Amino acid sequence: MRSLDDLAELQRVDQKGMLRSYLRWHEALLEGARAAERVELPDAVRTRVGTIRYGQPRAVLIVGMGGSAAGGELLRDLVWDSAPVPVLVWRDYHLPAFVGPETLVIAVSYSGNTEETLTAFSEALERKSMLIAITSGGALGELCDAIGLPVVRVPRGLKPRMALPYLFAPLPVLAERLGLVDGLGEQLKAAADLLRRMAGGLGPEVPTERNEAKKLARDLVGSIPVVYGFGFYRSVALRLKTQFNENSKVPSFYNWLPPMNHDEILGWENGSGLAEGFSIIFIRDAAEPPEIRRRIEITRDLVAHRVARVLELWARGETRLEKMLSALYVGELASLYLAIASGVDPYAMESIDAVKKRMAELGLAERARARVERLLVR
Ligand code: F6R
User: Fold this and answer.
1) Domain identity same for 183 and 41
2) How far is the centre of ligand 1, averaged over its atoms, from the C-alpha of 334 (Å)?
3) Whole-angstrom distance, CA of residue 60 vs CA of residue 102
4) pLDDT tens digits, one per residue of 123-165
5) I need a labelling partner for 206 at 20 to 30 A (CA). Which of 49, 71, 82, 104 fits?
6) Domain containing 155: what range?
7) 75 in a domain, yes or no?
């Protein structure tokens, strides 16, 4: 394992400066929020199949893949018990049957060229759903401009996962602008301020003994992280699993309580030593419900002796948003340090690029684009 306190080594492995970029998430959150405040929301948009009318939605569907879906998952957990309509996330080519003119579909694609998202977008347009896009450009940006659909533009030149604060922050702002929830814009500013303060204690110059993210990474070296969330930390657990995959290039899995107590927990009974290759991370909250606290304690008791390590990731802050983002932030940085500790470039993403390149031979993005172009009123 490489030292996480050798700054020259850190810089050598993290060639593209991902750590530097993540340590500015507080600024990116505020920038993303401002971009959503600026965007003009139309009353109606004309297409060849009819007019899309922007009114009060009966459901919100956030459509996107990978890093571009993560912000939607966070929003769903943030508002599931306060929004008057369902807020759901969709990560596939084809839309569920309920999607229609009264559904607000927010299509999120950092590149704007993801074939699944473009296909779902074309279907939403055909069904005259209220559409809004969040993207840095690509085909999605171009098509929205040509049709006159609102687009929240985020800066180019990042890997999608690095752009999470730009892709996420517009969602609570839009939800508030559409009258679905109150007060999220203010909460976002407070959460950005918390991340700014946290960044001071999590950066490369802060030694491992005093750096929560480095410590978590150090404790994970050599094992497969399994992240367990609960309640509104379910999206945080999923996102962290994906960051251990994408940044640290290790297999990683997630689940949440109580469901894992009803099936997955039996897997840890395996006595052949298989489980020793895994570390469990429980996301914790000083105000977690007593029944969840008890479940975590019982689960830890039953599985701790089978796995490599049981670790805890404690959320900070007052509001739900602060809690979610603070736990996420430590874990995100840990995923970068885990890559660096293993001498792995956190920026690289060979297999995702390879799949996209080989899938492109089928021409699905072009087909979706052509379907949309047929609907343009010229
Ligand atoms: C890469 C990443 C991926 C992408 C996904 C969709 O950093 O996070 O999960 O987000 O492949 O691509 P976009 O975001 O361009 O629609």
Assistant:
1) yes
2) 20
3) 9
4) 999 999 999 999 999 999 999 999 999 999 999 999 999 999 9
5) 71
6) 24-187+357-373
7) yes
